# Entry
Amino acid sequence: MHGKERAIAPPFADHLGLIVRPALGLDTDQLGTFSGEVPRRGTMLEVALRKARLGMHIAGLPLGLASEGTFGPHPAVPFFPAGMELLVFVDEVRGLVVHESLVDEATNFAHCVSASGDTLAPFLERVGFPSHGLIVRPNAGDPLVALTKGITSRTNLERAVRDAAAVSADGAARLETDMRAHLNPTRMRSLGVLAERLARRLATPCPACGAPGFGRTGTRSGLICEECGEPTDMVAAELFGCPACGHRDERARGDGLSRAPARSCPACNP
# Structure
């Protein structure tokens, strides 16, 4: 529905020789909407899997691919916004489910409240309007009354702000970035990065069984302090695994760091 294949298809063609095509006729809004009319039920992975399998059923294909995103405070630095993206690949022939995710700090996710006559120029410039779409709703009261999505022109924006403010209990309108991919080039670029990551992983065979999808599954903390030799909370190793046979491997940090600086040690720097 939102043109994500424009970002996802090229890496899958380049690395895997797979053609990515949308499952026409599938209304993914039934699984949840950013604007809140339909709440998302379940985790990002659960919803992405449902979405992929619905597409597979409609297309009559044994391979499925779907993405899911959420936006809000950064998980490590709550003062900053971030986008959390997940992309899942389902292979019913091999019985495989492989997924990759990323936390993107380069999101334009933001909102502002405007009363009649308020200047919007700084906000609009910051979020990249009109190349990036907006959603407008009443700031107080029922948020779904006078809800307008996909706004990409100043004329439509002014009309939507006026209509929303007129029915809002406080006389103001709330403007939000429209995070649907086809209206948000910043998010579309993130999906391209994620698709590249997943395609490369699917092109990596398991060293034990040869199945596709061997890749990083997590980390192990406990990097040893350079001063006192005690374990810290820093990542000590990266964990890799196979989605088919369960083979696991542990590897040193990718950046080559073998000791934690004393400033990151709870014993040396309590």
Q: What stands out?
A: Residues 185-202 form the longest helix (18 residues).
